[in-house]
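Translate sequence into structure tokens.
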Amino acid sequence: SAFSFIMPFYLEYIRQLDSASAGLYMSLYPLLLIVVSPLCGALSDHIGAERLTIIGLSLTACGLFLVGFITVNTSLSSIALLIALLGIGNGAFQPPNNYIVMSSVPSNKIGIAGSVNALIRYIGNAAGIAVANTLLYTGMSIIIGHHITTFTNGHNIAFLFGMKSACIVIAVICTLGVILTIRRRLYKAAV
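Result follows.
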């Protein structure tokens, strides 16, 4: 969600793409999510849900980290590849993660577990946007030299600094998720 919040600003205000073109680039993310999610849901039955969760979250973390280093001159094809990487990463993460959550509850609690799982996902999405927004505008404010709360034209360097701050922090959070999942996997293997 943090990425989906920031990237349209980059495409429209920094790269000067019209809304339709920016939307086409952004559509790569949900399109790949739609294609990859069912494939990874089936694949998790063969290689294990935790392993695929680790792979998907790692791809997402790598994608966010790389997005943090794009510039005004980064090619649009590179931007498209990063958007695609994030769509693939999230598509590989979501189905096995949902399986892990849902398989950890008794069958008579599946309905409530599904509701709580969806609630936590939406809270995570909202928190991601809030963190990204805060880091974006805090970073921009630091570079500009005064507090701002909206995009300011002509301050591309400030925007890129704020975007880098947000993407790297979110990438670190995803990396912590990878570490926790690996730790859980190792613990289960040892028990």
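Note: The chain has six helices and no strands.
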